[in-house]
Amino acid sequence: MGDREQGKRGDLAACRFCERQGFARVEEVDRMVGVNKATGEEVSSVPVYSVVCGYCGAQGPMELDERGAASAWNGGASDGR
Questions:
Q1: Is the C-alpha dihedral spanning 32, 36, 39, 45 positive or negative?
Q2: Which of 61, 59, 57, 66 is nearest to 1 (CA)?
Q3: Could you say which DSSP state residue 4 is in?
Q4: φ, ψ for residue 6 (rounded to 5)?
Q5: Which of 70, 80, 77, 78 is nearest to 10 (CA)?
Q6: Sequence-ordered list of residues with C-beta below 8 angstroms from that of 31, at least 6 positions apart, any chain
Q7: Helix/strand/coil (H/E/C) assignment for every residue in 9-67
Q8: CA 23, 29, 30: angle at the middle one, nearest 5?
Q9: pLDDT (tens digit, 9 = 90+) per residue, 24-65?
Q10: Which residue, among 75, 57, 58, 52, has the nearest Cα to 4 in the 3D structure?
Q11: What band does 77 get if pLDDT is binned at 50, 70 and 90?
């Protein structure tokens, strides 16, 4: 089961703002874009993930992968340690 499904299973902590359990889910919230300065062309695009509370809209720290976003939401180190 993917990390996006963790909120449905209850693996994600309750929201720290509204204290609701079961509404949090991992979502792609942005993309980091690399641009070639000489040409101005986009050369790469990397998704950025965060846990978002579906009840109140609170958003956790942004991370480069779904597992890191879940760990940061649950109070772990953002680099997966």
A1: negative
A2: 66
A3: G
A4: -60, -40
A5: 70
A6: 45, 46, 47, 48
A7: HCCCCCCCCCCCCCCEEEEEEEEEEEECCCCCCEEEEEEEEEEEECCCCCECCCECCHH
A8: 175
A9: 999 999 999 999 889 989 888 999 999 999 999 999 999 999
A10: 52
A11: low
DSSP state of 77: -
What is the three-class DSSP state of 8?
helix
| Residue 29: C-alpha distances to residues 25, 40, 49, 54, 81 (Å) | 11, 24, 6, 13, 23
Beta bridge partners of 51: 26
Burial of 71 (0-12, 13-18, 19+ CB in 10 A): buried
64 vs 21, 22, 61, CA distance in Å?
A: 24, 23, 10
